[in-house]
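Response to reviewer comment R2.3. The reviewers asked that we include at least one raw input/output pair. We reproduce the pair for Probable GTP-binding protein EngB here without editing.
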Amino acid sequence: IHLNKATFTISAPDIRRLPADSGIEVAFAGRSNAGKSSALNTLTNQKSLARTSKTPGRTQLINIFEIAENKRLVDLPGYGFAKVPMEMKKKWQKALGEYLEKRECLKGLVILMDIRHPLKDLDMDLIQWAADSDLPVLALLTKSDKLSQGKVSAQVLAVKKQLATLNADIKVQAFSSLKRTGAVQADAIICQWFQD
Ligand code: GDP
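Raw output as returned:
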């Protein structure tokens, strides 16, 4: 499995428009602006696979990228975006919730969090849900280039410590799209999920 084989398949506003629920999907989720699109582009080695645009309504679809036959990366709608009308928010969160609840082929969840502000309420809700659902999680602490090496280590340790209490399959990795920090490690974990 090579993530750089990713090709865009479809953007869907809700789960009814997605490809058949078979094979393996690994989904990416995170607060808006956490660095999800940048991480997808870094991990697939493709500059503009996922759009890093902040225009509401554009990044808020479920985007599917095929890696190999019946193996897909899924870019889920960002959550926690402050500056959009309530109605739009509800619609997006509905697509996100439905995907997580109903998608049988979901085998791993990558959760993107800014290393400077990890484990916000909505992040914890998602991580707790994954733990309860026995879904393996990779927590990528993004934009690690913004902190000193010492602070990065301290944050990784603090996040690991807090998540250890959940007793679930949760891995924590510092990540920078700018410097490619953690890209090899994240790639290995995601490719393992596609093999299982
Ligand atoms: P998304 O909303 O989660 O998809 O986030 P984006 O990938 O669009 O990134 C949001 C903002 O953070 C953009 O301005 C990016 O340039 C910036 N960003 C993303 N990843 C990194 C990183 O690794 N380092 C730095 N310094 N900035 C980043």
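The domain at 3-195 is CATH 3.40.50.300 (Rossmann fold). Residues 30, 32-38, 52, 78, 112, 142-143, 145-146, 176-178 surround guanosine-5'-diphosphate (CB under 6 Å). Further pairs are available on request from the corresponding author.
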